[in-house]
Amino acid sequence: MPSTTFKLRKLIGVCLLALYLLLGVPVWYKLTTTYRAPLPIEYIHALHEDKLQDIHMVIPVYIKCDTYRFPDLHEAVQVQVNSLLNSKNQNVPWSLQLMPYDAKKLQDSNTSKGADYHVVNLVLDGFVGFSLAYDAKETTVFFDDSSVITNDLPFFIAQTVVEHAFELEWSELSSEKSLKATNSMAISYRPNIHVSISLLTGDGYPVSWEIDSTLKKYFSPLRKFLSPLVNFTVDTGILYYNDLNLHTLNTRKNVTWQDLSHSIDLSELLSMNYFSESASLNLAVVFPSEQNCKHGLSFINDNWDGFLVPQWGMIVVNKYPLKQNSSLTERYLTPIMYQFATNIFQLLGLKKDSQELISPSITIDSFKRITILQNIHKAEETLWSLAKLTQAFQTMSIPKEVLRNVTEALELRLQIVDMLNDPFQGDDELWNRALILSNQLVELSEAAFFHGEMVQQNFFPQEHKLAVYLPLLGPITVVTFFGFIRLIKEKPDDKKKRSNEPEKPTGNVVEKTYELEE
Amino acid sequence: MLGIWRYILIALSVLQPVFGVIESKHTNNWAVLVSTSRFWFNYRHMANVLSMYRTVKRLGIPDSQIILMLSDDVACNSRNLFPGSVFNNQDHAIDLYGDSVEVDYRGYEVTVENFIRLLTDRWYEDQPKSKRLLTDENSNIFIYMTGHGGDDFLKFQDAEEIASEDIADAFEQMYEKKRYNEIFFMVDTCQANTMYSKFYSPNILAVGSSEIDESSYSHHSDVEIGVAVIDRFTYYSLDFLEGIEKDSNTTLQDLFDSYTFEKVHSHAGIRKDLFQRDLKDVLITDFFANVQNVIPDQGKDEFISAADSKISGDNKNDSFVPNILNLALERTAWESEKIRENETSAGVSPFTKTSKLNGNNWIRQEGSSTNTYPHIIAVIVVLFTSTIYCLIPRSASPTSTTKGQRLPYM
């Protein structure tokens, strides 16, 4: 073989190896490597550790006094409020911004949207006390002249406002369990909740009920009242031949709550799969069967009894069965709607146990704020879980969409924090807007965590990798590398000849070359 | 009658720690039942899963909270002498494939990917809710798997396999997102105990039918069906569970004690190091049943009186009774009145000028008015307009205006 042919062969060998290494390996790496978008892990970690401490919720409160003019009362109350709040360990920092009553600002807002800001009314009376308005965000503090002389009034106001008017914030944000939902009765907060209202009868007789007019009259106002917090969708239906299995209890003499829990069968009413909302509440009005309970259910004392089912809803059990072609009137359904409305507050977590709601307006307002903070906390925890998992599972892909969702969520969080921290903004509109944004924040963080492309088998045994790659890469690698090594070791024929037989004519070499090529 | 039980319930909850009884914190139960094998000769795996389905459903877990994955449709197999039926015993006493079976994943939908997606709830948007595991931090989940397995893996559909690491990682993702309170993992395959060996997330209890390098066996064959109809481990589990009712106090320790080598013909294994509670405190119904607590609701009379006063108050404009619904009703009434006021004021505005001409405020006098000036003016305006309309020549057709003729603001 002439040296030029040998050089050409060597060049081709080098080219093939270079192609293998410079093109093949990067392409293989590119095609087999899962895309992992760079998430802001450090920032999320800092949020989880609460290193940023950028939340300090401030709620504006206006003090109004028609009797006396106290030019510096709000400053004195501010000092007392701060000292009271600092006396307790605050897991989520919050404070009140006390301001003198601004008639222009507040009257403007009140006429357009109702009582938007929290107002403390000071009323001169013969004793010291307070009352919370049932239908407005208003606290009335009664004081006497001696409390003014002894300078106790600022403390009275501070105590009333912090410990009573803002009782929910005071208890939830200043305790160890803060922002962790521990209520076994209430469902997890969701902005959209479905309400299923069912009439169940143990018989198959045709029955009707005036549910449409009752709902329009009583439930629609409640829906509207709670609409800043929750959007309710409602469906109604009649189920025949279903008494929730209550007839089995009729033979027993002493029915306990445990018997009821074990006998009741709600499986046919758990139909939340058919609705798009992620949470649902139920109201079931049950009548026993005439055949099984002719004389009524013995464990029901009156005409009907109401029962609460934690995180599910309410059951109204009637003592006597429905007659043929019965129609349940609005008059019958109205007290049930009253009871259900009160229970909804408990099932949403707006009140605990059966305690009375002193001021629904103030409670709803506080609940909004707690929910906003809970949503922020929930989103932070979700993002932290996402960060941890992506670090733990290195083979899991992280699509760009996840990064986009995470970035949007973090920006949204800052926007909400700015709203919460503003000491001069605190009307209904602000809290409603912050709540809507916080719901979006949760949605974005969950969309990032539950992204459909982040599912792959994380674990691949070595045998699997070998089984996949060996048939494909084995032959190519073996041929390329061994061919190249052979080429390196090979010497040109004229050199060989020169070392062995230097006098031999070149014609033989050509002949031999042909033989080799064959 | 039920009122006193409310207080007893509260007292019991207070005294529980004193007596050392630790109840589960869960409020809802879910079940994921998976058969991974295909083909007629694996009839028993379908029967295993359907038997478990029947048990959890009997104990109150609703279909919406059961995810049933059946890798083959043996009920409709042409070799089935009892079309549409599946039996787990040669006495054919119970048809497991009755009218009310809701299969969520069937045939080739039963894949490793779908199973992992189900556990981690990572789906595309079009996935229906009925095929998702919508659990939360209050959910107890019972996961049952059956099929052909080996050391650290379980075959799916004769085409792929799931490794124990995959399930462990999926559980970890569930734990991170607070998607369970407790998990009870039961697996009936050959070398089943290896399937839970890699778990590392807390609050998981696992039980398997056989040790490493040990086979799981079928219980018996049915001559008419021609194949084995149930596996031994599942058979004896079901034998135990048949005696359980929703109010049963039997614990998981009792179930595990019932597994003997003589019965199962293999060494059933239990992994409890990740589980917080003592197995003697864990009721069978904590995982196999759905017991909804029912609490008597107080204050019925108050609501009846509130409703009565509202109904009667409609007629005589009674005063406000403090109640949430009354507050909502009052707020709505106030708002609608405000809207009405606005509408009314907007409606009478054309007459305002007239009233001002006479020095009266017409807005304050809603409804019928004794003043007839507006009516007279309205009549005059109508008459004047119609006269002008009659005087316009009919033949003339409208001509378009030129740009120069148009007013500047046009």
Helices and strands, with pairings:
The complex is a heterodimer of chains A (518) and B (410).
Chain A: H1 3-32, H2 41-48, E1 57-65, H3 73-86, E2 94-100, H4 103-113, E3 118-124, E4 129-132, E5 138-143, H5 145-149, H6 153-165, H7 167-172, E6 192-201, E7 208-209, H8 211-226, E8 231-240, H9 257-263, E9 279-287, E10 304-309, E11 313-318, E12 327-328, H10 330-347, H11 360-392, H12 400-421, H13 428-449, H14 462-489, H15 493-500, H16 506-517
Parallel strand pairs in A: 1-2, 1-3, 3-5, 6-8, 6-9, 7-12, 9-11
Antiparallel strand pairs in A: 4-5, 10-11
Chain B: H1 3-19, E1 28-35, H2 43-58, E2 66-70, E3 105-106, H3 112-120, E4 139-146, E5 149-150, E6 153-156, E7 160-163, H4 164-176, E8 182-188, E9 204-208, E10 218-221, E11 228-231, H5 232-241, H6 252-258, H7 261-264, E12 269-271, H8 285-288, E13 295-296, H9 300-316, H10 324-357, H11 373-391
Parallel strand pairs in B: 1-2, 1-4, 2-3, 4-8, 8-9
Antiparallel strand pairs in B: 5-6, 6-7, 9-12, 10-11
Helix pairs in contact in B: 2-5
Active site (chain B): 148, 190
GO biological process, one term (chain B): attachment of GPI anchor to protein
Pathway (chain B): Glycolipid biosynthesis; glycosylphosphatidylinositol-anchor biosynthesis
